[in-house]
């Protein structure tokens, strides 16, 4: 691999994500306050938008270009990152030890995925939620009420192993979507309705707060959460974004801060538990879609992006649109919860 910062392969660059830069992908940016280097399409330097004193190290991982990359999740047992390309449609897997990326085609739009406790994947397709194994294929376990033109979007497991996933109208974005909860009994429960684009599902480390965004409302909400029953309590506005930026997918770090990919704003924002912006990390594309912590120490922030609906001129100007990015942000994440299976679904 050629390292695009003028250093020889393997030469230290001093940041966590860059420890792996000779194996993980192409270097986009690195540096320190006061250190200036030339700009280029594939390599730029980014100052911390809030403080102006830190630089973030970012690399492109692999050569794949997603149409609509989403829902990255880290499997600590396999040391692998999984994510989806909703519109290809496909599931991808990056093996961290050897850099191999595998892609499995899906029969229809795949909104989100989660890990099941038996090693299979939970996959949200437009008309069903399925368990998936590359060898045996898809096994449906739940079906929402049929709504023509609708599909699943963002989904994630809470800390007790229930899968939460929202639906949306695939074309009109009319406020017809529903947030569902799938529990260990296989019951799909309707929790919220009148949603346009469900996103930002995440839970605080203690499981007592659930985060959720209806993206086109430009707000992230925080709900009091009963981890035992899975019931929502009082709701408050956690954060508000300025149009055209809106909240997309999120992840919570080990310190309890929420990281949100802000679509149309070209940044990932770290929010403190009280909702104020702790810092903002620019990324080299205007439309990041989701983020997740991964790597052996859970200290790499992976960011998915989109190349959907771009003109040729836009693609030429934004060659990293649709790329998977790895960013050093100096904090660690939490292990991904797994979906708890009913006895009849165990193998």
Task: Describe this structure as you would to a colleague.
This protein is mostly beta strands. It has a single domain (17-345), classed as TolB, C-terminal domain (Neuraminidase). The protein is 3% helix and 46% strand. It has 2 helices and 26 strands. The strands form 6 sheets. The protein has a 5-stranded antiparallel beta sheet with strand order 1-2-25-24-23. β4 and β5 form a beta hairpin. The termini are far apart. Residues 1-24 and 29-55 have low confidence and may be disordered.
How are the SSEs ordered, and which strands pair?
Elements (H helix, E strand, L loop, with lengths): L20 H4 L1 E4 L27 E5 L7 E7 L4 E6 L4 E6 L5 E5 L6 E5 L4 E5 L2 E6 L3 E6 L7 E8 L5 E7 L7 E6 L5 E8 L2 E6 L5 E6 L4 E8 L4 E10 L5 E7 L5 E6 L3 E5 L5 E6 L5 E7 L5 E6 L6 H6 L6 E5 L9 E2 L8
Parallel strand pairs: 7-26
Antiparallel strand pairs: 1-2, 2-25, 3-4, 4-5, 5-6, 7-8, 8-9, 9-10, 11-12, 12-13, 13-14, 15-16, 16-17, 17-18, 19-20, 20-21, 21-22, 23-24, 24-25
**Overall pLDDT score:** 86
**Helix-strand topology string:** HEEEEEEEEEEEEEEEEEEEEEEEEHEE
Query: What does the overall shape look like?
Result: globular
Strand neighbour order, sheet with most strands: 1-2-25-24-23
In short:
The chain has two helices and 26 strands.
Keywords:
single chain, 347 residues, mainly beta, Neuraminidase, 5-stranded mixed beta sheet, 2 helices, 3% helix, 46% strand, globular
């Amino acid at each position: 691999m050629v390292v695009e910062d003028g250093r020889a392969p393997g030469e230290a660059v001093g940041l966590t994500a860059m420890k792996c830069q000779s194996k993980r992908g192409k270097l986009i940016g690195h540096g320190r306050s006061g250190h200036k280097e030339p700009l280029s399409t594939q390599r730029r330097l980014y100052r911390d938008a809030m403080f102006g004193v830190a630089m973030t190290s970012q690399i492109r991982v692999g050569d794949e270009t997603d149409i609509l990359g989403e829902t990255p999740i880290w499997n600590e047992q396999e040391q692998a990152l999984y994510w989806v390309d909703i519109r290809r449609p496909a599931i991808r897997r990056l093996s961290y030890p050897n850099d191999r990326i595998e892609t499995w085609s899906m029969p229809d739009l795949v909104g989100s995925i989660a890990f099941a406790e038996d090693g299979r994947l939970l996959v949200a397709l437009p008309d069903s939620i399925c368990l998936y194994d590359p060898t045996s294929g898809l096994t449906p376990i739940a079906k929402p009420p049929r709504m023509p033109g609708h599909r699943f979007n963002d989904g994630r497991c809470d800390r007790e192993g229930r899968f939460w996933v929202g639906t949306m109208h695939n074309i009109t974005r009319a406020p017809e979507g529903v947030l569902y909860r799938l529990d260990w009994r296989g019951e799909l429960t309707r929790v919220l309705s009148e949603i346009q684009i469900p996103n930002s599902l995440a839970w605080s480390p203690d499981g007592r707060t659930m985060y959720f965004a209806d993206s086109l409302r430009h707000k992230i909400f925080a709900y009091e959460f009963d981890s035992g029953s899975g019931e929502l309590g009082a709701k408050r506005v956690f954060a508000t974004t300025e149009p055209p930026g809106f909240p997309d997918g999120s992840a919570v770090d080990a310190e309890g801060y929420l990281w949100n990919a802000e679509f149309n704003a070209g940044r990932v924002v770290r929010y403190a538990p009280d909702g104020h912006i702790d810092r903002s990390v620019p990324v080299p594309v205007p439309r990041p879609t989701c983020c997740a912590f991964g790597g052996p120490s859970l200290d790499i922030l992976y960011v998915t992006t989109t190349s959907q609906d771009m003109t040729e001129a836009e693609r030429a100007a934004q060659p990293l649109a649709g790329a998977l990015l790895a960013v050093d942000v100096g904090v660690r994440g939490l292990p991904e919860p797994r979906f708890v299976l009913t006895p009849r679904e165990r193998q």
